[in-house]
Amino acid sequence: MTIPYDDGLRARIRGHLAGHGRRAVTDPSRRHAAVAVVLVDSEVGEDRVDPAPVDEWNAGRPRPAAGLDGRMVDVSGGAAFLLCRRASRLSSHSAQWALPGGRLDPGEDAVDAALRELDEEVGIRLAESAVLGLLDDYATRSGYVITPVVIWGGGRLEPRPAPDEVVAVYRVGLHQLQRDDSPRFIAIPESPRPVVQIPLGNDLIHAPTGAVLLQLRWLGLEGRHDPVNELEQPVFAWK
């Protein structure tokens, strides 16, 4: 069942975020980045043709699992968030799934950076008044602290991806975060921490994006305050 994109949802998410004791990471040795978790409206079936060309979305990487080809199809409908496929030509984290975002510029806070990156990467400009609140910080293996900023888009919006950074932008229904097979946790020999996987479409979304999306479900939709900062990234994302 899809989730209606309405004032009730906006009030529920805002209230859950406001009542949460946010877990912040204060480590001056780490670089600070922010991502925009943009909530928009979507229609069922509008994503049945994958807009990312095969040579870009695959980028030579292995299939995520048996029966999965990495395509983000059949995920839209009702309240949704914007998910980007990064360009394969990027020097780091190429062809991976990501939320719009990047490092903070001098003098910026996380909200400023998330709104700026949203404009630069996907061509959507929103005011600070659209911000519903912040999720917990997530410290990455590559030396960043990521602050997720939850933003109410106010409608469908029409992304215009910057081709040097983003191959395609998808509207992924929030109901997809509540699939019966989600979340998944696997063990790896390189770490005692469980690796989180969020099944979406024909792919698996890993941390840090997967951790952010899991807290969007747990806290934003369900009001659960469970931490996600100890969930591990797969080894391919450690660099």
TrEMBL record:
Domain of life the protein comes from: Bacteria
Matches recorded under Gene3D superfamilies: Nucleoside Triphosphate Pyrophosphohydrolase
Keywords, ordered alphabetically: Hydrolase, Magnesium, Manganese, Metal-binding
Cofactor names: Mn(2+); Mg(2+)
Keyword NADP: no
Pfam families (alphabetical): NUDIX
Residue ranges of every copy of the Nudix hydrolase domain listed in the record: 30-194
One example GO MF annotation: metal ion binding
InterPro entries tied to this protein: CoAse (IPR045121), Nudix_hydrolase (IPR020476), NUDIX_hydrolase-like_dom_sf (IPR015797), NUDIX_hydrolase_CS (IPR020084), NUDIX_hydrolase_dom (IPR000086)
Family note: Belongs to the Nudix hydrolase family.
PANTHER family assigned to the protein according to its UniProt record, in alphabetical order: MITOCHONDRIAL COENZYME A DIPHOSPHATASE NUDT8, NUDIX HYDROLASE
This protein's name: Coenzyme A pyrophosphatase
Originating organism: Mycobacterium saskatchewanense
Taxonomic classification: Bacteria, Bacillati, Actinomycetota, Actinomycetes, Mycobacteriales
